[in-house]
Amino acid sequence: MMRMTVLASGSKGNSTVIATHRTRILVDAGLSCREILRRMNVAGEDPRSLDAILITHEHQDHVQGVAVLARKLGIPVYFTEMTHRAWVRWLHPRKRMTYAEWLRQRQQGSATASENANIPVAAAATTVIDEPDAELCEAASPERDPAALPAVAYFEAGKRFVVGDIDVEPFTIPHDAADPVGFVFEGDGVRIGFATDLGYMAANARQALRRCDLLMLESNHDTEMLRDGPYPWSVKQRVMSRVGHLSNEAAAEFLERNYDGQAAYVILAHLSESNNLPALARVSAERALCDRMSLLANKLLLAEQDQPLAAISL
Ligand SMILES: [Zn+2]
Ligand SMILES: [Zn+2]
Q1: How far is the CA of 244 from the centre of ligand 1 (A)?
Q2: Residue 243 sits in which domain range?
Q3: For the chain, does the N or the C end have fewer beta carbons within 10 angstroms?
């Protein structure tokens, strides 16, 4: 059995738990550490049981709490090397330190693991968590390297790797980040596809998302609302571009033309609060799926920004 719990989805923060009975992964940590812990408690997920954090890309709404949470729980963080670099650079904006220098400095203090390795969790770092209060998440200290992590593991888009008994297939997505990825997770015979933050449905993403039992797909904006909405033109162009975000219309086109209709659940995700309405995203996807909606497949859910979705078990 696999379980998926969306803790948050949208431009103010993204985080999702993917679990088998043995392994628990957090995909992205785009809320504060404290808020992630709070939502995990609300959703009935035990933070102490997390084995790893996987990062899709370095945008703030996907990484905000990653360092503090990983240190708190003593668990490794998986990035592509380019995403890790971009994240480190972003955290050290004023320091003139090259990545190689930073890595040398870090290696004195923490283990850096190579791709596909099974990463031992740093010993003695796990703290018992009872309540998600201020003490759980350390205050920012000026001496501490903000990019310090208990362990870092690198993966590459297109190369499968394993975390515990979950098979992870990262695939490249078109988005304006250093090396952004979507994921397909497989465990206990269940396949979960995960694709948000993508400018369009590229052929490799369409291919990766076949045969999924659960599909989480971006439905970011309504094109008309975006065009007529409050964003400056440069931001509108960015969102609409080939490396921006997937519109309701583009998500519907994928669901209608390319999707194989096999998922028990389709979750629409990363909805814009300014340029979309849940009802618009839902109607657009329902229209695309209308012939294939049944009691068994394509139950449509909308991921939310402000509260976790109930856990889905398959
Ligand atoms: Zn995002
Ligand atoms: Zn992004």
Answers
A1: 10
A2: 3-313
A3: N
